[in-house]
Amino acid sequence: MAVMLQESSFRSMNTQIQVILAASREMSEFEPLIQSYFAKAEQRFSRFLASSECSLLNRNSGSRCMISDEMANVLELCQHYFEVTEGVFNIFILPALEHAGYQRSFETIANDDEFAEICNPPLLPFPKDRLQIDLDTAMSSVRFPANQQMDLGGIVKSWTVQGLSDLLRIERQMQRGLVNAGGDVEVWGGASDMEPWVIAIDRPNSSRIHRLDELLLLLVDGSVATSNTQKRSWRNSGGSMHHLIDPNTMKPSRSSVIQCSVVGEHLVECEIWAKVMCIRGLEDGLPLFKRHAQRLEALIFTEDGTLHHVKPSANGSKGQWLGLEADYVYV
C-alpha cells in the first residue's frame, strides 16, 4: 500500500493542533491515539481544570503530595530550566498571572473588551537562588512551600508535542511526521526523501513594513518554538498585559522583544528559550542565551521593527531560512 502524507487537525490545550504523518493506513486509525494524548495532558496539567493534578497540587501547597510519573518528569524539567535560565523560567507565577487579569482560559475571554485586574497589593519579586520544589522522584512525591501556586503553561505544550512525536516515531515507527501545537513544532524524516518540511513563521505586526508577512524554515529533523507577547495579550485598568511574567517584577515583561523563534533539537528547550528571550529582552537575554544555549538558533523581533538572528555557535544549524534578511546577526 502506498505511503502518503495525511493530516489531522483539532483543538486541544486552548490551541489548534496539527499532525501530519506519512502512513499507509487511514489517518482515522491514529486520530484517537493522537487526540487522547493531548486530552490526557490537558486534564493533568491545566490550571483551568479544578480536577487536574496541577490544580490539586496548588490547593495542597505546603503539604507533601503523591504525583504521577508524568508530573514528576515535568517538574524535574522545570527545576533544570530554572537553573539553566538563571531563574527566568519560573513556574510559580500563577498569582502574577491572576493579578494581571488572566484568571480564566484565554479561549473563553478572548472576545471580552477588558480583563479584570485583581486589586491586591503588588506581588514581591521571586527569589532567584532556587526553585522551591522538594521533589522526591524515588517516592513519586513533591512538596511546594505554602501559598506557592504554579502555572505549567510555559512548558507542557512543547512537552506534549515532544512526547507524542517520540511515540509516533519510535513506537509506531512513523518514518516522517510533523506535530504542531500553536507554533510549537517538531518534525522528523522530511516531507519526503528529497524534501524538507516547510514551516512558516509569521512576522509580528510591527515588523511587516516592506517585508513578507512570514519567513519559511526548511527543516528535515528538529524543532522550532515561537513565543509572542502580542497574540495572548489583553488590556485592563493597569494598561496592556500579556502572559509572559518577569519573575523580577512579577508583572508582564516590558522588554523590547515582541517575538522570538528558537530552532533546535529538543522542543521543550526551544520553547523555554523563546520565552526567556521575550521576558529578558536583548540586553539581558542575549548574553544569557549565548552562555547556555550555544546549540540553538534564534530569530528575535523587537518592537522597533528590527530582526535579530542569533546563529548557533556549536554543532551547526538544524535548518535553512527562506526570506530571511536580518538587521543584526550574532555568531
Give your account of this protein's structure.
The protein has 331 residues and is α+β, with helices and mostly antiparallel strands. It has a domain at 196-331: T-fold (Roll), CATH 3.10.520.10. It is 27% helix and 28% strand. It is built from 7 helices and 19 strands. The chain has helices spanning 31-45, 53-59, 69-84, 94-99, 106-109, 156-171, 267-292; strands spanning 4-12, 15-23, 65-66, 134-136, 141-143, 177-181, 184-188, 197-202, 214-219, 222-228, 233-236, 239-242, 245-246, 251-252, 257-264, 297-302, 307-310, 319-322, 328-330. The strands form 5 sheets. Strands 1-2-6-7-10-15-16-17-19 form a 9-stranded mixed sheet, with helices on one face. A hairpin with a 4-residue loop joins strand 16 (297-302) and strand 17. Helix 1 runs antiparallel to helix 6. The protein is globular. The mean pLDDT is 86.
Layout of helices and strands, plus pairs?
Layout lengths: L3 E9 L2 E9 L7 H15 L7 H7 L5 E2 L2 H16 L9 H6 L6 H4 L24 E3 L4 E3 L12 H16 L5 E5 L2 E5 L8 E6 L11 E6 L2 E7 L4 E4 L2 E4 L2 E2 L4 E2 L4 E8 L2 H26 L4 E6 L4 E4 L8 E4 L5 E3 L1
Parallel strand pairs: 17-19
Antiparallel strand pairs: 1-2, 2-6, 3-5, 4-5, 6-7, 7-10, 8-9, 9-18, 10-15, 11-12, 13-14, 15-16, 16-17
Helix pairs in contact: 1-6
